[in-house]
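Good morning N.,

You mentioned wanting to compare the apo and holo forms, so I went ahead and generated the holo version with NDP. This is what I fed in:
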Amino acid sequence: MTTNNQNAVTVTVTGAGGQIGYSLLFRIAKGEVFGDSVVNLRLLETEQGVQAARGVALELADCAFPLLGEVTITTEIDEGVKDANAVFLVGAKPRQKGEERADLLAANGKIFGPQGKAIAEHAAEDVRVIVVGNPANTNAAIVAAHAEGLDPRRVTALTRLDHNRGLAQVADKLGVAVRDLKNMTVWGNHSASQFPDIAELTLNGEKVADKLDEAWVNDEFIPRVAKRGAEIIEVRGRSSAASAASAALDHMRDWVNGTAEGDWVSVALPSDGSYGIPEGLVFSFPCRSVNGEWEIVQGLEISPAQQERIDANIKELQEEKAAVVEAGLL
Ligand code: NDP
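and this is what came out, ligand included:
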């Protein structure tokens, strides 16, 4: 990563006073993403959330992290993304009771449009953006559309949590270690329609699809991964935060440093038309990070059953896009 200071990186986290921010910031400051670079943090919050972000900054100071540089706390978007090499867009408006998806999309569009514009104008040229706040794929599409002059491939959305959840479920089912599994794929939208796909998944280099009962894959595995967030809320009493933060870190670390040899990960990014996904749709693909850029893994065979699930995701994302276009946000 190019640095804007000698051996220093600037990292922006929005929603820094929230749950995910609370898990994310300490690990970034510890050096888990950017190695031994000094990390300057920009904590962007709303008026409502800024006090909590100030509290987090006090705790960051108390950790005495050797790699932590300046910490800036702000409610001003331009200041929040200034010179940023990496931006974690976590803050989003949660869905309220009785609210339609179109309302949620429109409310979040108003947050992410100005953030996209500010990133294009004020962030570092090599900025890498990950959207965590939901609906993450469409929020990322809004960021990319408003970030004039920024290569859209620098704007991504998080499906790594779904990817990691899929690995954990298969490891548990087969009684093996997660580290021995490779080539999981999550296709599509970070929503209940997502397609966690084990067709290419390997255990110590051998495909596992024929070791797994098809009924288990279709009736238990796929819905469980897709609805894992609800399961966590039911058991924990609050939404998952540490696992979401951990996945966002995995995503940024691999983007910066490269994916593990022989493996790939799931990343939602603007489609280049691969696998027939309409260009520009922010869609989760199997990706490798090569020389600091995401590359979509090419040449995988797609069966009619896989295609059906992929098509359902295309349809849902096109509907989300239509809702934000109608709201004048795209
Ligand atoms: P969280 O930190 O728990 O979640 C933030 C966002 O991440 C939500 O959109 C949430 O979606 C999403 N998310 C993605 N994956 C997951 C997952 N696995 N589990 C849970 N959430 C996930 O929310 P908080 O309410 O604790 O904090 C949000 C903060 O953002 C507040 O401090 C608020 O002030 C701030 N904010 C900042 C903005 C800004 O900087 N401009 C704008 C809006 C809010 P979901 O809602 O579906 O759970």
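The chain is about 40% helix and 20% strand.

Happy to go through it together on a call whenever suits you.

Best,
F.
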